[in-house]
Amino acid sequence: MTRRNIFRSLIGITLTRFTHAQPESMASCNPGPTGVPAAAIKPPHLSSESDIPEWLRQWQQDPMSPIMEGRNPCESILLIHQTLSNPISIRYANSSDGSNTPRSVTPILLFEKENYPDSSYLLAWCHSRNSPRVFKTTHITLQD
To answer: Using an 8 Å Cβ cutoff, are 20 and 28 in contact?
Structure first.
């Protein structure tokens, strides 16, 4: 399975797991970049469940909680853009190859995973890749 497909499966399962778990009153709070609720974004097709690596399967199954209040300046700014559905320019440091790429993203959900208490993640529509992506917030540098 390619790295791209791994992240597509990550995003697809993340979206469906969270949107089905949230209360009805929040179902339309976080619209996608086109004004469509995040739940309307369809998960990508996988050829089989065996395509998902075990570490990713465990991460996906870990309960997630939305972050409502920023614990640092980066999270606070991302939450403001999430609330307003405004795009933001970031640089994202890829941990696997060390590349640092500019991205334009529209935040959908800032969240954390139960078994990863020191990490927060941003689910966002990536305008650079034209698809939803998950970003680890410690790898994000905000651009002016």
So the answer is: no
Contacts of 18 (CB under 8 A, 6+ apart): 38, 64, 66, 109, 111, 123
Name beta bridge partners: 131. 126
Encode pLDDT of 14-42 as tens digits.
554 444 444 433 333 444 444 444 444 44
- Residue 111 pLDDT: 95
Cβ proximity of 32 and 68 under 8 Å: no
Supply the DSSP symbol for 51.
Answer: G
* d(C-alpha 137, C-alpha 110), whole Å: 9
Q: Strands of the chain (E only): list them.
A: 64-66, 88-93, 100-113, 116-126, 131-136, 140-142
And the tokens for 31? 């619209």
pTM for the full predicted model: 0.66
Contacts of 90 (CB under 8 A, 6+ apart): 102, 103, 104, 105, 135, 140, 141, 142, 143
Query: What is the C-alpha end-to-end distance of the chain, expressed in Å?
Result: 36
CA distance 112 to 130: 24
